[in-house]
Specification:
The chain has 498 residues and is mainly beta. 0% of the residues lie in helices and 48% in strands. It is built from no helices and 40 strands. The strands form ten sheets. Strands 1, 2, 4, 6, 8 and 10 form a six-stranded mixed β-sheet that branches. Strands 3-11-9-5-7 form a five-stranded mixed β-sheet, with no helix packed on it. Strands 31, 33, 34, 37 and 38 form a five-stranded antiparallel β-sheet that branches. A hairpin with a 6-residue loop joins strand 14 and strand 15. The chain is rod-shaped and about 215 Å long. It starts with 6 loop residues before the first strand and ends with a strand.
Amino acid sequence: MTTAGALLTIAAVFGSSLVAHADTIADSIEATDAPLTLVAGSSATQSAQIRLIGNSAGGGGGMGGDPDSGCNIDSGDAPLKLDIVTPAGITANPDPLEITDCGVDFTVTFSAASNAVSGNATATIISGPAGGGLYHNLVSIPIVVTQSQPTNTKPTVVVQGVSAQEYEIGSVPAATCAVTDAEDGPSSFPATLSNTLVHGIGTQTATCDYTDLGGLAADTASVTYTVVDTGAPTIGHVLDPAAANANGWYKTPVSVTFSCDDGTGSGIQSCGPNAVVLEGANQTVTGTAVDWAGNTATDTVSGLNVDLTKPQVGFAGGFGSSYYFGQVPAVPACDGSDALSGLASCVVTGYSPAVGSHTLTATATDRAGNVATAELSYTVLSWTLAGFTAPVDMGRTWNTVKGGSTVPLKFEVFAGATELTDTAVVDRFTATPTLCPGADALTDAIEFTTTGGTALRYDATGGQFVQNWATPKKPGACYLVTMTTKDGSSITAGFMLK
C-alpha cells in the first residue's frame, strides 16, 4: 500500500454558548501533490492515514472558539465518525471511519471498480464525541484512476480434418485450422497446404499459423499425410471395322483402338498400344492401361481372323472357244480354292448354248468375303443352210404355181462340214401371206409339183430334207414360205398362186 499526505478540514458546532475551538484532522500524507493511484477494475488497493490533532497539539490557540482546548475526544467518549466521500466507482474501507483518539493515524484503504473515475476523496462528520467540540476539516485525498491493461493470453491452434495417415485420391478431407483464444474467441480457417502433389498423389503437409488481435502468435501446428491411388484404371477397345463379315472373318485390316479412364484417380500415364491387325487366323491384341500411381488394367481382344487375299478361281476341265449350235458342252464346273479362310462358294455364270458370243464367269468367294473371278469367252456358231433347191427358186425370184398344188421344198443343213440329217433340227415352216409384187417382178414357174404326204422327211437318196407344201387354193394370192432351224437360221422363198 502507498500513503500520501493531504489536509482534511472538518467543521462542526457543538453548543453555541461555548467558546469555539478547532481541532485538526490530518493524515500522514507527506506531500499534498502526491495522489493515490488506482487501476480501474483491479484488485490492488491504495491506503491513506487520517488522524485527529487536538488544539494543543498544533501549538495551542483555539480555532473558531473551540470550547475544548485539548483533544475533543476524552477518555470514555464516543469516537468521531467520518463519512469518507469518494468519486464514483471508488470504495473506501472502513467507511465510515471511527477516530477514537487524537494524534493517532487511522488507515483508510481505497479500491477502484471498473467504472471508477479520478477525483478527490473527502470526509464529512457523521457524529462527534459527547463532550462536544469544534472541528476544522482539511481532508482532501487526490485519487487518480488508470485503466488496466487488458489481459491477453497466448492463443492455440490445431489442424482438424486430416491426420497423419493415407488417404485415397479424391477422398482427402478438407484441412482446417481451429483456433482457441480466451480474448478473441474461437475461429477457424483453411489450413495452408504445402508440398506439391504430382498427379494428385504424394505427401502433403497442412500447416496452421495464427496471431491474435493482441499480437500474440500461437505455436505452429502441422499434420503431414499421404495421398495414394490404389484403384485400378479401366480400359476398353473399339474395332474398325466394328464387326467381321460373315463367318467371323475380316477381309480388311482391323484397327484396334484402346481407350482408358482413371475416374477420380491419378490419371492415365499410358494406354494401349493401339494396333492394326493384318492377315492371319485367331490373332490376339492386348492393351494395358497404366495410371500415374502404377496401377494397371488390361484388355485382350482375341479371335481376330483376317483374310486379305482373294481366292484362286478357274474352270474345271477344258472348254473350247467355239462350237456349232447343238454341240456346246455342258457348263463347266467352277474350280476355286482359298488357303486361309476357306472357300465359301464357287459358281459359273454366263453359260448359253444359243448362237452368238458368250462369256463364262467363274466367281469364287472365300469365307472372309473376298471375291475372285475368271472369264472364258466362246462362240456358238450357226448352221449353214443350203436351199431351197429346184424346183424352188430363191433370192428375188417369185415362184409361180397353181393354187392347190403341192410344192416340194428341198434343203440341206450343215454344222460346219457335217451334214445334219435328223428332222429334229428343223424348228418350223411358216407360210405368211404378203403383198404381191408389181408386174415387173422377176418370176419363175414351178417346174413340177408332187403328190403325197406333207410330213418333213430326210431323203437319204437325194441327200436332203423334203417338206411338201400344199399351197392354198387362192389364185392371185402371194406367200412367203420360211423354214427355220433350231439354231435360229432360216431360208425364205416367195410364191405367187395362179
